[in-house]
Design brief:
234 residues, alpha+beta, 6-stranded antiparallel β-sheet, 7 helices, 12 strands
């Protein structure tokens, strides 16, 4: 199976720095194994940028399963912070997908960046948000609609770089021709509704979809950095 991907990131309309990191950083295609990923960093000063870029570099080089790559990224961010006191407490989300030659995609995920599947115009969220409000929704304490506007919706319960023991969420899917996968930071999903995301993904090329989604987030306020990677199975 051939994979066609496009990626983009933007600082948004409010933030001064872009703490997101994407991989690959440029568009391309391949009929062999492909890795794509999105990270959204957090931390004072330059901590967020350093956390996301450090984790991404560790996760997308070398070998190992997607889960092993995230565990390595976690340890690498911790080691980086340990050598630089001003970076203490920095962390990052990381959502990574490995596409194999046999039409399988394997996910590893920590945080509230997301992975979606668009199949036959139906958009499905693959990953779970590791946030406080997501736990409240799962417990029935609040509704999904209330979670979207809750003032604590951005409070992460799990991220890379916070501790040695991190539980990585994993998924595996078999792809069919025409499937589209999207990885994104919460700067997109916090600004753009799912039906709009689905429509753009369904009706644009991967490259056009990336920038239409980023533009939609910015037109809705652009309150956060926004990063998008779109992959088509062809």
């Amino acid at each position: 199976m051939k994979y066609i991907w496009a990626s983009g990131t933007h600082v948004g309309r409010v933030r001064e720095n872009n703490e997101d990191t994407i991989f690959p950083a440029s568009d391309g295609s391949s009929d062999t194994s492909v890795i794509v990923a999105v990270a959204d960093g957090m931390g004072g000063h330059a901590g967020g940028e350093i956390a996301s870029s450090t984790a991404m570099a560790a996760a997308t080089t070398g070998s190992g399963t997607p889960e092993e790559r995230l565990l390595l990224a976690n340890n690498t961010v911790l080691a980086k912070a340990a050598t630089t006191p001003s970076l203490t407490g920095m962390g990052t989300t990381l959502t990574l997908a490995r596409f194999t030659e046999d039409s399988t995609v394997e996910f590893a995920h920590v945080g509230d960046s997301r992975a979606y599947l668009l199949r036959e115009n139906q958009l499905t969220q693959i990953t779970n948000d590791h946030t406080l409000v997501a736990e409240w929704v799962a417990a029935g304490a609040i509704t999904p609609e209330e979670a979207k506007v809750h003032p604590r919706r951005g409070m992460l319960m799990k991220s890379l770089g916070v501790g040695l023991d991190v539980e990585v969420e994993t998924h595996e899917l078999s792809l069919v021709k025409g499937d589209r996968l999207m990885l994104c930071s919460d700067g997109l999903t916090g600004m753009v509704k799912d039906d709009v995301i689905a429509s753009i993904l369904a009706n644009s090329t991967p490259a056009a979809a990336v920038w239409e989604l980023i533009e939609a987030a910015n037109n809705s306020g652009g309150n956060d950095n926004v990063s998008v990677v779109v992959i088509e199975a062809d």
